[in-house]
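Here is one chain, start to finish.
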Amino acid sequence: MAGSILHNPVEISIAMSKPPEKIVQQAFLVYDEQKIPLIQHLLKEKQYRSVLIFCSNKLNVKNLTRDLRRKGIKAGEIHSDLDQGEREETLVQYKSGRLPVLVATDILSRGIDIDTIDLVINFDVPHDGEDYVHRIGRTARAAADGSAFTLVNPKDQRKFQSIERLIGKDVTKINIPEHLGEQPSYMSGQRNGGGSSKKNILKTKEAGISN
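Its structure:
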């Protein structure tokens, strides 16, 4: 478009920022039906002060929030179906610590600055690397440390590998707990742009969260 309407246009590209090194990034290879049980397990296994979970659509936000509440986990939700007053009230509760878990769409991936968030979970793989950086950048604010977990189903593996290329980092893959069943294999040959369909599980750490 620029070439068709401008004379000798100059293009200026701004490099995408990388996630802070102090964020512990980990990924879990899962099937869709394992996502909610895995999150419930993670939240029960360790006590976090403040958890922010990102979903790519409001239906997943509603379903996950409902299931967490049924398991006795105090969780709130923010998405486009809520009016501004409802969103603000939920945020007030979250910032004050009365609401330890907040489930949201990407409406909160930018513009929220809370120093106490120590865990970000990507329920869905973000659409691109920039969204990923903004999401996990909600943790490890100021001088604090933080963790970022991403749940990767088979159809999102290519997308996640693209994110890894953009951030210049191979995110550590973690085994899911045995009681959740067998997890999908990781597709090799795509990380560096290859087209091989050979399946292989990358080196993974044993189940359990390292910080």
